[in-house]
Amino acid sequence: MDRVLAILLIIVLSAGLFAGCTAKSPEPEPEPTKKPEPKPIPDPDGPIDGGAIDSSDPNAPKSVESTEIVKFSCRFSTMDVSEPGILGNMIYSLKAVAENGEITGEYSVMNWDWEWETRSLSVDESFMEELQSIIKQYDLAQFNGYSYEVSGLPDDYGATLTVEYASGESIYASDNQNNFLPYDAMEALVLLFGRGSASVPGIIDVSVASEYEAKEISGGWGSVSWPSIELGYLTSFGEYFMPDGCEKLEETLDYINSQSYKRAQGAWDRFGSASEFKELYESTEAIVTRADSAVVSFYERTRRYDDAGQDRELTEIRAYNIDAATGAELEFSDAFNNIDVLPALIASEIRYAYPEQTFYDGMEDFIRMSIEDEDGNISFSLGCGCVHIFADEYILNNEPGGQHITIPYSAYPQLVRTYYSTSPDSWLLPMEYDTTYYIGASDFGVTTHYYAGADVNEAFWEARLVGKSGKTAIEELYAPPLECWLCAAGDRYFIYLRIPTGDASMLTNVYEVTESGIVKLNDDYIELAISADTPLDPGWVRMYTNDPVFTESVILIPYAYWQIGEDGLPELASGVFDLDGVWCRVRESGEYAAANPSEGAYYLEKGQSIRPFQTDKETFLDFITDEGQIVRFEISDYSPEMQLNGGKTLDELFEPDYEE
User: Fold this and answer.
1) Contacts with 656 (C-beta within 8 Å, 6 or more apart), sequence order
2) 432-489 pLDDT tens trace
């Protein structure tokens, strides 16, 4: 019942529906309505602060026949509204002009620092049609001719509306004391202008690298792991390709990475005693929820076991949202239009998502205090179709692990500022199990789950729709599945599921997510698997192939960059495969051909460290030395028994890189 009441409250505060509007020619063209001249109320002592001037024109037309807007300007304040809803207590200024076949304008809002925040419009002709729909739906022409001014008031209240039409008709109304505009009309205008000022952002290549350390501690062993968020991607020549204009973003990510490293290293000092059966650890993973030219958002989940006497694993969430252009870390008040409505909404959604849990009395107050104090106990991470909300463990109740919910932008269109909720047309994101991922501006999402079967080697993976009724995808596996990825490619959505095999095989199933259900696209397993550190770009996905080579001395694990096409299936973007593999050593000194023919050959000493680098899996195999020299071997085939340069095998040319 709480959820129903909360959602009803939010719906009342949500944006009004746009009604259609059919243009028709004015007949005949009426005289334009001019801004009336002020008619001051007589005051023998002259104007004083607080004096009122009512210059309303009672004869001004209360309807317009024209539908072609050439100029629109509206400024209104909700500062004195006791329950401002999603709009908050703010001041808005909205402008749009149609001239020479182009529409220009701006969307401005007084932000929480009492500074104007202005964004330009990027719209087409349909914008003015939607604008006229709002004017007609809420009968804004009824205010035409109204003009009331109180002398001495600050410029923080009331409303002003000016609309000019191609026919010469116009609407003008103004009051600097009271806002005469209907609430639903203001919300619809803010939604329209906010959307028009939010140009579709482009993808930024972001990847997550993971670092790991293990060593002996008192009583046993300990380990720490930590993530590093990286911009760009490593090219085939060992150089990073960096997106343009991201210097500030890179600085912020570098700082966050340094803090993650410091926390990981500090774990060694916090560890108590281990035991024969209890290895101590602090493990942090990063999950990116969005990466584009508007915002980069991700969260870190740390799980730690600090002492052998500890009752249970401890969990902590840290969430980050970074404006991609400025590098500034966003707080709740930066990303959300009105944080006053958040505590009730978050509390309602958490209760609904965790019906089996009992929460403390005053739950909303805890949430409100955390948001206002920015203490991190309640945090958020922006996504491509929803916002993730986190509550740390033991904050709202006595349960470990905390709570994680997602709130769709489509259900609350004014919850998050439009330029942070507008997402790219294409993206790639890692999925967490039992988390709903809402898709773009739609009203449905998808969630994945796995559960154990009756047999010890049996598990089931499930993907189902949320918000729609449709076909559920279920796979029977021999073990819990590995990574899931959600991809938007154009106007279609896909899930990539890596299939566990028990060995080094790389296998994947691909599913399409539609409003009617989730359907597998491939008949047989696709012999590829997305790498955990892939760039989050459907046009540049790092995928391993299902033909690794293992010998006594050498490991070759080929990967390449693939493009996820509009049909959802991967297409190879390059004929050259990069190689992962351990370091080895050359067995004999001698001349080795350079991969670049212009460099001739390199002389390598016996014992020179070297590792796999690249191959086309047909004619050549490249290795790179620890000094950056790339040497090339000709191969007749690609297999563990391949003959290099027409003679020796891998184990005859190389030996393991063992430390003495």
Assistant:
1) 552, 553, 584, 585
2) 999 999 987 788 999 999 998 877 778 899 999 999 999 999 998 888 877 999 999 9
Cα end-to-end span (Å), the chain = 69
Give the three-class secondary structure for 565: coil
Helix (H, G, I), strand (E, B) or coil at 364: helix
Residue 249 to residue 417: CA distance in whole angstroms: 20
* Owner of token pair 């959802």: 568
Residue 5 pLDDT exceeds 50: no
CA distance 454 to 475: 15
Beta strands at 170-175 and 147-150: parallel, antiparallel or unpaired: parallel
Which residue, among 263, 254, 257, has the nearest Cα to 302 in the 3D structure? Answer: 263
Nearest partner of 518 among 591, 456, 580, 568, judged by Cα: 568
Percent of the chain whose predicted confidence (pLDDT) is above 90: 64
The pairing of beta strand 220-231 with beta strand 280-291: parallel
Closest CA to 70 of 99, 95, 93, 94: 99
Q: Which residues pair with 570 in a beta bridge?
A: 564
DSSP 141: G
138, two tokens: 């809420």
Report the candidate in 606, 584, 602 with the shortest Cα–Cα distance to residue 593: 602
CA-to-CA separations, 609 to 47, 362, 380, in angstroms, rounded: 90, 63, 46
In DSSP terms, 290 is beta-bridged to 297
Give the pair of three-digit tokens for residue 370: 């955390």
Instruction: Decide if 197 contacts 419 (C-beta within 8 A).
Output: yes
Neighbours of 181 (CB within 10 A): 20
Q: What is the pLDDT of residues 340-366, one digit of tens each?
A: 889 999 999 999 999 999 999 999 999
DSSP label of 429: E
Q: What's residue 284's pLDDT?
A: 97
CA angle 325, 111, 92 (to 5 degrees): 110
CA 422 to chain centre: 10
Phi-psi domain of 621 (left: phi exceeds 0; alpha: psi -120 through 50; beta: other): beta
pLDDT > 60? residue 4? no
Residue length of the chain: 660
- State the Cα torsion 425-428-434-438 to the nearest 10°: 0
What sign has the CA pseudo-torsion 330, 442, 132, 8?
negative
Q: Do 601 and 591 contact (CB within 8 A), yes or no?
A: yes
